[in-house]
Amino acid sequence: MKRSVIGEIAEYIAEELKQVEIILNENLHSAIKVIPELSRYILESGGKRFRPMLTLLSARLCGYNGYAACVAGAVVEYIHTATLLHDDVVDESDRRRGRLAARKIWGNQASILVGDFLFARSFWLMTEYLPEEALAIISKACVSLAEGEIHQLVKSFDINTSEEDYYAIIYGKTAALIAASCEVGAVLASNGNREALRRYGREIGYAFQISDDILDIVGDPGKTGKPVGNDFREGKVTLPLIYALRDATSEEKRHIRDLLLAESISYDDFGYVREVILKYNGVEKARERVKEHGMRAVEAIKGFDNSKEKEYLIGIAEFLVEREY
Amino acid sequence: MKRSVIGEIAEYIAEELKQVEIILNENLHSAIKVIPELSRYILESGGKRFRPMLTLLSARLCGYNGYAACVAGAVVEYIHTATLLHDDVVDESDRRRGRLAARKIWGNQASILVGDFLFARSFWLMTEYLPEEALAIISKACVSLAEGEIHQLVKSFDINTSEEDYYAIIYGKTAALIAASCEVGAVLASNGNREALRRYGREIGYAFQISDDILDIVGDPGKTGKPVGNDFREGKVTLPLIYALRDATSEEKRHIRDLLLAESISYDDFGYVREVILKYNGVEKARERVKEHGMRAVEAIKGFDNSKEKEYLIGIAEFLVEREY
After folding, report:
1. B64: how many CB neighbours lie within 10 A of its CB?
2. CA-CA-CA-CA torsion sign (A276, A281, A284, A286)
3. Side-chain half-sphere of B205: how many Cα atoms within 13 Å?
4. CA-CA distance, B264 to B269, in Å (whole number)?
5. Do the beta carbons of residue A212 and residue A249 sit within 8 Å?
6. Contact A143/B124, CB-based, under 8 Å?
7. Which position among A7, B124, B222, B278 has the lowest Cβ density within 10 Å, counted as fewest Cβ atoms?
């Protein structure tokens, strides 16, 4: 069951998710054709709608299942999509979700500006349909998002990236928006426990990002759809490597630093990096973190009465802990 | 007096403008040093605070002169600054306001992400201090901004850019935010005439952008601080050229198109373009438009009682009509 919890949830809230898709689609109208074209290209490229799902489940858990939750779901997906567009420009990525990155088709310039459009459109949508608190939650998350991305940029290619840096980066780039996605669901209910859902979302965000970073090292490309070693090649020093470097010999550390700074590295080179990470149990230790964050996420919402929604939110935490793709 | 109306206004509302500077400065706090560094570099590079001025005067004209107007002024300046950062990346500009563009110092990546930060910070500030209507006004303006920039991108290097295209572009990239800067001032007053100030701001925005585009062709670099022909070199077909091309011979049009599409053009080449523009009175006709928009701006606020604020707002319109730098 774990492996398909996302699919089960998608069925359970199928109608709301359909509404989210309609909202996502309807608000791309523009006289400038490239806006809906580029936006749809990335929106339709197999995103799992993970954030809208969390918003909808959080709202329902707190007793709200109206239209505003669908708008909020669409808003967090727009914002996430805007950051993907800007990320791909910043990282000079050629591919995204198994397809060409939008910037390879429409160019960096259009990717930057359509990202700006989606960001602005999100705020406009919120002013139309959502309460003021929702705007405060989301705008703060957007500040964190930008900070996280900039922090990551500053620390890229830095072999001395610390665990503290890493956590600050992933809080900003991932956990903040996922926490906001959950919290915003709670504020739509008249008496929702915002704090609990914010904490749940933050822990889920950590678990999600760390497991993603693990898969970038030991994932099966056949399952994940992407080659391993992407992060390292982009200069990102992630948790498994940070843990391994603590115990690595200075010889190993020096070699890895040289590879990190090299113009380009081969798959064999990354094989060496992976070997060192595994030798010092970097992946294992990072997996421990994922487990901890998963447990804390479950802990955060234990006060809620039992319900299908609660079960699914717990299921998401368990799914991330056991995630293999 | 006309030439120094901006200076006079700056003195008249010096205290509020000082408050705006404090807000601009205080909200750049971040653990990531590059955020305040890069932001301050561009914020302190000689911007005239034209938009905050309009917000403050508009609010005062409608009878409000409290702190929220200073916040609103800071917000529109942040948003303007964010778009400058993204513009410089999109246009690959090397210089801005007589200094190196931020992207030449901190790189494109940081410029994109700090732009995102300023944008997000603006919305957060609004949720803290401004009424809901302000958020609606500003977020719509941000959508128009992105649309205008994308429209400009799509039409760049297109010799067939029409007057209609041009107006849609400058509405989005300039007039929409200036209109919002004025309207947002009005909504802070309990009974402000939003519609009048929005119209005033839109016309001022048109006048401002068209006069800017004229200066790019016939301005005195010693006064404007930038060389002529920048727009043409960046592929922007602006109003004076659009007007001239209507009457130009097919030979002249073909030559100008070739120059527009050329890898690089010399100052002599731009001299040819300017000659053709002047020969067919392109600048003169565009100046007529500036005059019209200036008059319409004055017309929009004629219903207000006489006041220093009204006098200054009219002064701004007159200043733009006679602008030489």
Report:
1. 19
2. negative
3. 26
4. 10
5. no
6. yes
7. B222
Supply the pTM of this predicted model.
0.95
- In whole numbers, what is the pLDDT of chain A averaged over residues? 95
CA distance A13 to chain B (A): 30
Low-confidence stretches of chain A (pLDDT < 50) are 1-2
B2-20: pLDDT as tens digits = 458 999 999 999 999 999 9
Of B113, B121, B143, the CB nearest to A120: B143
Distance in Å, alpha carbon of A223 to nearest chain B alpha carbon:
31
Q: How many domains is chain A partitioned into structurally?
A: 1
CATH code for the domain in which residue A67 is found: 1.10.600.10
* Residues of A within an 8 Å Cβ radius of B: 30-32, 34-35, 83, 86, 89-90, 108-110, 112-114, 116-117, 119-121, 123-124, 126-128, 132, 135-136, 139-140, 142-143, 145-147, 149-151, 153-154, 168
Query: Is the per-residue pLDDT at B167 higher than 60?
Result: yes
- Residue B11's closest CA among B312, B223, B323, B325? B312
Domain extent at residue A267: 2-322
How high is the pLDDT of residue B225?
77
Between the CA of residue A127 and those of A26, A72, A260, B30, B72, what are the distances in Å?
A: 16, 11, 45, 27, 16
Instruction: Determine which of B113, B158, B167 to mutate to test the interface with A (most A C-beta atoms within 10 Å).
Output: B113
Closest CA to A38 of B153, B324, B299: B153
